[in-house]
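Next comes this protein.

***
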Amino acid sequence: MFYMNKINDNHLLPASLLLLPVLLAPAQSQAIGGFVEGNIGYNFYNNVGVDLGDDPLFGKVEMDLDYDDEISYGLEVGIRNFDPYDVLRLSVSWDRFDTEVDQGTLSVENGVVISPPGGKFSGSELNDIGFKFDNEIDVYMANLYFDIPLKSAFTPYFGIGLGQADIEHAEDKEFAWKFMLGTNYEFTQNFGLGLRYQYINIEGWEDEFDYKYDDLIIQDISATARYQF
């Protein structure tokens, strides 16, 4: 199997951090506040193609992975009340995702039929023959949120995040970005519950067996609990 060098994004500085000096510049009459938020979610994955390399007999060999839907969880800490209109929040976050293969479809370049018929293997069958396509993924990001002020206990928001993903069997950490859309309901001045949608893109990676993965897209719907001070 041949190996292709990849661009290492480990040292990519999240763009939202570059905004920090600008956002903190205006003088404020109120003290900067903070928040801590936990989440638990249900996530969906796109099918991911994996290049297994070149075989002398079959040519290029590929596997298309269909992942099970899974439960995810995470934690976030950040600051608020630092801009003139009190609509921006900055945070750092950690989220844990599990990718477990439901089914893998094997294909080869020259069209030779792969056993079993159709080249479809269950996740357990792939594990039994030594493929390690299941991964635990930790995603670390810096995030910027815009809260939409309403005259109610509900606060809708949207945001963006940049960071990196630590993938269990990958050779390196990979660049990741996300878009968030959600709402928070404040039961008290300090405590609220909410719902959030995340669209997360993790750049394709290479694992310890030199298999090359396409980008992984995660769509996550989470329940959140926030304490702010």
Observations:
- The chain has one domain: 36-228.
- The CA atoms of residues 139 and 165 lie 4 Å apart.
- The chain is about 5% helix and 55% strand.
- The first strand starts at residue 33 and ends at 45.
